[in-house]
Design goal:
Blueprint lengths: L1 E3 L1 H17 L6 E3 L4 H9 L1 H14 L5 E4 L2 H10 L6 E2 L21 E6 L8 H9 L4 E6 L5 H10 L4 E5 L13 E2 L10 H8 L4
Parallel strand pairs: 1-2, 2-3, 3-4, 5-6, 5-8, 6-7
């Protein structure tokens, strides 16, 4: 039985609890893609985040395997959920690290790309404010989310070097047109977009 993210994990926990009651054996596993507390803190506030974070830690003790995506995440969860031993399974996409390196010469305008949800946790508004002050940077923003209207307004105000491009289902094919992927998030697990960018040599 596999679950992924907060509420499916809680359901998995309840089913796993019944295993103890009815003495039926099955494997239960949760893949933890990010830092649950920080995710909820930026979307629902500290109080709700604290409540669900502790509820999640308590109930998911019934799940046999909790898997994270990196050693950094494992250290975090083992520190704040010390009664459980987390396991690491790395992202399976291959990355050729020798492709890293800037493709533009110093002094030229650098084309930046942001891909992701437009919300507080991603820190997109701060990114726009910083790029707006630069004279040698251009930023294209792809994505949607709660801050979409705010992002559109700020991009329109700074249209000399910032463009909101909307949602694009084929965005992975366009990453190679840019000099750098930017991801200014306050907290992340292991974003797929970073792996995709690295795989085609975009730092």
């Amino acid at each position: 039985l596999h679950s992924h993210c907060l509420f499916p994990d809680l359901l998995n926990s309840l089913i796993s609890t019944k295993e103890i009651i009815f003495r039926r054996s099955f494997n239960s596993i949760s893949t933890v893609p990010s830092y649950i507390y920080f995710d909820m803190r930026y979307s629902h506030g500290k109080t709700i985040a604290y409540f669900f974070w502790n509820l999640w830690k308590l109930l998911t003790r019934c799940i046999k395997h909790k898997v994270v995506l990196s050693e950094t995440m494992k250290r975090f969860y083992n520190r704040f959920d010390s009664g459980y031993n987390y396991e690491v399974i790395y992202h399976s996409r291959p990355v050729e690290t020798n492709k890293f390196g800037s493709k533009v010469k110093r002094g030229q305008v650098k084309k930046l790309i942001y891909i992701g949800v437009l919300n507080d946790r991603k820190n997109i508004i701060s990114l726009i404010d910083h790029v707006a002050k630069a004279t040698n940077l251009e930023l294209d923003i792809y994505g949607c989310g709660p801050l979409i209207q705010h992002v559109k307004e700020k991009a329109l105000h700074h249209n000399e070097n910032i463009t909101y491009c909307g949602f694009d289902s084929n965005i992975s094919k366009k990453i190679g047109l840019y000099d750098c992927l930017v991801l200014p998030s306050f907290a992340e697990g292991l974003p797929t977009v970073v792996i995709e960018a690295a795989n085609i040599g975009v730092p």
